[in-house]
TrEMBL record:
Residues 11-112 form the Glycosyltransferase 2-like domain. This is Glycosyl transferase. Pfam families: Glycos_transf_2. Keywords: Cell membrane, Glycosyltransferase, Membrane, Transferase. CDD domains: GT_2_like_a (cd02522). GO terms for molecular function: glycosyltransferase activity. InterPro entries: Glyco_trans_2-like (IPR001173), Nucleotide-diphossugar_trans (IPR029044), Trfase_2_rSAM/seldom_assoc (IPR026461).
């Protein structure tokens, strides 16, 4: 982005680690948003956590910045936010695609809310993924908690006010949502982020659901994110 360009309305921050197979698919749809300099200018910041594949090479021509970070999604996203120049931030996973009109919807939502998220539609082989998606969306509406694969967005001022993501190895998205709930209820947008259901396809839908609910319950009971991250790795 040159100094002659107008300031962006939205900074999209995408953490990445060994995503050579999917990063191009994630970034190509964002190119039209980057090109809309007068109406909906977006900057795209990719934060690599030490990929050992071709992720960085693929991402560089498709992003405004590709930053290097120690691994850890929370650490990577906080670093991206530090380098962002827009008044609004969107944290988008490297296996997720935004709905049509996402920038305008975020801009409008942040007029009345400090933060928000989209609904999610998981894509993949399992016939249970629509059910899983519905459950995730309903849970989010009832609790006011969002997860990272729902495309969490927040005003930059509010993100700084709550001191960003806690740098923990798991549940960083839930922890941020809890912090932001002290500022406002989330904007729950019905437009859907399309996110990969590869985790459910690989390990089985109901097995993955049971694992994630068990981990969230234990997190709510006060078990450390470090311990839960170890249990998550062992289960996978």
């Amino acid at each position: 982005m040159s100094s002659a360009d107008p300031a962006p309305r939205l900074s999209i921050i995408m953490p990445m680690l060994n995503e050579a197979d999917s990063i191009e698919t994630a970034l190509v749809p964002l190119q039209s948003l980057r090109a809309q300099h007068l109406s909906a200018q977006v900057e795209v910041i990719v934060v690599d956590g030490g990929s050992g594949d071709d992720s960085v090479r693929i991402a560089k021509p498709l992003a405004d910045r590709v930053l290097s970070s120690p691994p850890g999604r929370a650490r990577q996203m906080n670093l991206g936010a530090q380098h962002a120049s827009a008044p609004a931030l969107l944290f988008l996973h490297a296996d997720s695609l935004l709905p049509e009109g996402a920038v305008e919807q975020i801009t409008h939502a942040l007029i009345h809310h400090a933060w928000g998220r989209f609904d999610i539609a998981l894509s993949g082989r399992s016939r249970w993924l629509p059910v899983v998606s519905w459950m995730m969306n309903q849970r989010s509406r009832l609790t006011g908690i969002a997860t990272g694969d729902q495309g969490m967005f927040v005003s930059t001022a509010s993100f700084k006010a709550v001191e960003g993501f806690p740098e923990q190895p798991l549940m960083e998205d839930i922890a941020l949502a809890e912090r932001l709930k002290q500022v406002s209820r989330p904007a729950c947008l019905t437009a859907k982020v399309i996110s990969s259901g590869r985790r459910w396809d690989q390990f089985g839908a109901w097995k993955t659901i049971r694992l994630m609910w068990r981990l969230r319950y234990r997190y709510w009971r006060g078990v450390s994110a470090t311990q839960l991250a170890k249990e998550y790795r062992d289960a996978r």
